[in-house]
Amino acid sequence: MKRIFEVAPWNVVTHKLDKENKRLQESLTSLGNGYMGMRGNFEEDYSGDSLPGIYLAGVWYPDKTRVGWWKNGYPDYFGKVINAVNFIKMNFLIDGSKLDLYTDKISDFTLDLDMKNAKLNRSFVVEKDGSKVKFNFERFLSVAQKELSVQKVSFENVGDKAVDVKVISSLDADVKNEDANYDEHFWQVLEITEDGIIAETKPNDFGTPRFTSGMQVSYVTGLKEVDHEVGKLETSKTFEINLQPNEVGSLEKRVIVVTSRDYESVDDIRDAMEGISARTAKVDYDDLLSAHENVWADRWNQSDIKIDGDTDAQQGMRFNLFGLFTTYSGEDSRLNIGPKGFTGEKYGGATYWDTEAFCIPVYLGVSQPEVTRNLLMYRYNQLDGAYINAQRQGLKGALYPMVTFNGIECHNEWEITFEEIHRNGDIAFAIYNYTRYTGDKSFVLHEGSKMLTEMSRFWADRVHYSKRNEQYMIHGVTGPDEYENNVDNNWYTNLLARWTLKYTLEILGEVSKDQFAKLAVTKEEMAHWQDIVDKMYLPYDEDLGIFVQHDGFLDKDIEPVSAIPEDQLPINQNWSWDKILRSPYIKQGDVLQGIWDFIDDFSDREKKRNFDFYEPLTVHESSLSPAIHSVLAADLHYEEKAVALYERTARLDLDNYNNDTADGLHITSMTGGWLAMVQGFAGMRVHDDGTLSYKPFLPKKWNSYSFRQVFRGRVIEVTVKEAGPEFKLVSGDPLQINVYDKPLMLK
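That's the Glycoside hydrolase family 65 protein sequence above. Prediction below.
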């Protein structure tokens, strides 16, 4: 655990330039607007350790899969997000000497991420060669105009003699990823002028689309332009001012960013940049900022969670929501939510099963149904790729990828790529979750029924029938607990396979005759699926009364995490992989993930026995782990445990719990704060009959908490105080809910 920022309700702020933790500072001050995003890198060059990163939504590159031993079925390429042309770059000369915060003498440093308004502020005083200048930076990525990046820098002479300040502002295509596979540049400049760059990703051998990006810059400043330079990879302009003592100069940099995802040709890209630039040129800085802030105000008004009495918890919750909103807002069904969002290169910026399992429940509660529907359409539109993934394994139907940009699997670890097949069940569950929560069956009866049918065909071919046991089994898998590879009969995987087949059969009974005909499901197929449902093997231990994570799990030396010496944690940074695989320690919820998914289907006794057995074995070294454990702990009235796990999930990155935030935030696990609060502390459930219910409790160290929840055309406000819960219908038709199993009408 490492806390390098101050605790404040709406801000992530520090007054220290922490050179040893510069990458961590950059991660925690990342910005995004769903269309593009960036780490909290300085505008100017910094000669110390840093991880520069600017990323464009949906723009990626296929890098050749490199493995020591090729296996049939391996993906041809490993898809990765790529560092975009650096459009925020600005260097500064003070009396001819370059500003570098790593080596220069600075004071009064402030770095402030304003979460309420999604703006990054930075200020400091630098002393060089007898001159003293105060710098102030502001930066935001507009959510009112998604293609617009705005930076404003001012500099004040706070010394006692005149000082010359030069600003060299650039668009720089000389960028690369830190990843070792990227030892080459991946942008080829097509056009470069004084005011813009149009660049295309280099050719690839896999037939995947190349992307073109365009950046056009304009300036608002009283400084004098003294030079410009157009090179092969970089275009820059130099501005200058001579400041007398107490005099202030400023420069505003606006960049329009567009890509070939939205425009077909270079001419179209050029026209779009010029058109958007012309429109925004008519608007001053304050109005641009105000339009941006107004959108954020609407977001917070609908989804903010307020916690009274615990500023640590309040900051963590808002940081979670901020990370989600800066990554994905739901307007574009071609986009999804990468585990690092726009904050780093790790995980390749691709789509994982995290979206369906963890993000969809939150977006259902904080946004309109169209947002979640777009996430489901993303998968539907990539069904062709899922067919290919299954075919490469010699199987029928569709296997959705573990990691993807286009539906084709692009991850190069076998035990993850083709053993962690539970994601097919997670995607099926997301369709069910959307349908149950919204009451809207239009997706599941059309696009969803196609997805379910093809996933069921995969499961029916992937299982095998054990004649000896007279049951269906699934061998050679990895469950959600990635510290167990190539196991047989992972309980969670088998559970979801059985459930998917059962749910598909249910939906096939509801689709129209025309849709049923299009799906071309035979009676023999349906009978086979029902046989699997009836005879699926789910490991269970009678003596312990628990669902067994997989065959052989109980043969391990079962010792709790408390038995591990403190200096050996986290084990993924201290133990060999062999030792981890042989241990009983669980990376994240596995059996408990299944119980969380279907929480209404298990008795209190079953939930208690399984939680009491598995949670003490869980190291929570996946960022996705604490939240579901917090929900289950709350359900079991283990309130102190629920709060402790909430604190871990809400402040996972802010306090760097797993010592792995320096390379980017854990965006998909930022759902954890909302899940732990709303499903856990408030006990919110949506039951199969559509009933919305709550069983709230108030953590002892809090005075109160409140949140708003979108549900079936309504907005409901829930406030929990020491005196008890209060419920208010903010908008929409009257609704009956259940509170502590008693009906309550909201009007």
